[in-house]
């Protein structure tokens, strides 16, 4: 589990969503006739150690982090896409992170998304254990997934939330099976000079900048990536 970092830490409740069922932690992509090719940049970085002097490292599969380390994700589409991000905490909680509220899953070309927004960061709390972030990107809207995630965020009863989480995981499993004829996505590092437009100035608590970690992805219609964290 983790917190938002801003003027105060706000502890996550509810719990992330998607894919724990022993699914592979690799990247997945598949071509679908008539669907646009995905092309986007993303960077997922963690600030380790003291906030004043810590360093930024890329969050990948099996990244080791400690309580108090902070995380931030950046996405910039080059072509229209639908973007989904969910988190599975060390305590087994599932939380949809994007889209939430009034924000649509559709992201227009050239838009820049930072999660969390502005000066906020995700921060690992005092509960160690394995954590996962699941990122799904699609050329078409994943309507059923959106419906399940939206309902999940409204639940307060623990048993109902667990049943909802199971339904979401089953939907994610179904999506991956639907795109099971895999083709390898192309990924390459991207050099971004300084802070990209829209980033706060260097005096902002959102700094350090994660965008220098950006990778460009090209995939035929669907892309899925799991970021596993060994939270110590």
Radius of gyration: 17 Å
Extended strand count: 17
Residue-averaged pLDDT, rounded? Answer: 81
Main sheet?
A: 9 strands, antiparallel
Overall geometry comes to globular
The count of helical stretches stands at: 2
Characterization of this structure:
With 232 residues, this protein is mainly β. It has one domain. Helices cover 13% and strands 38% of the residues. It has 2 helices and 17 strands. Strands 1, 2, 5, 6, 8, 12, 13, 15 and 16 form a 9-stranded antiparallel β-sheet that branches. Strands 3, 4, 7, 9, 10, 11, 14 and 17 form an 8-stranded mixed β-sheet that branches. The radius of gyration is 17 Å and the shape is globular. The protein starts with a strand and ends with a strand.
List the helices and strands and how they pair.
Elements: E1 2-5, E2 10-11, E3 15-16, E4 28-29, E5 38-48, E6 55-58, E7 63-65, E8 70-77, E9 81-88, E10 94-98, E11 106-107, E12 113-115, E13 121-124, E14 129-138, H1 143-152, H2 158-178, E15 186-189, E16 215-219, E17 222-231
Parallel strand pairs: 3-10, 7-17
Antiparallel strand pairs: 1-2, 1-13, 4-17, 5-6, 5-8, 5-16, 8-12, 8-13, 9-10, 9-11, 9-14, 14-17, 15-16
Helix pairs in contact: 1-2
